[in-house]
Amino acid sequence: MGISFNLDAQTLTALQNFLHDNHKIKSEAEAVELFLKKSLQELGYLGREPGAATSPDRLNSSNDD
After folding, report:
1. pLDDT tens for each residue of 5-39
2. Ramachandran angles phi, psi of 18, nearest 5°
3. Contact in structure between 59 and 45 (CB atoms under 8 Å)
4. What's the domain of life for this entry (predicted)?
């Protein structure tokens, strides 16, 4: 499955600079996927295991790990 989108010039330049500095990441698409996954994990929408995430509106002190 794929998506396409346009980035403003400043964001695209930053992405290209990131790729230049991080040779293990082979493409812009791979970098964007990495950023998206990390953001979704930090926001609680993507867990370490499939289906393990708790959405932010359901977070409370009883599930604060």
Report:
1. 999 999 999 999 999 999 999 999 999 999 999 99
2. -60, -45
3. no
4. Bacteria
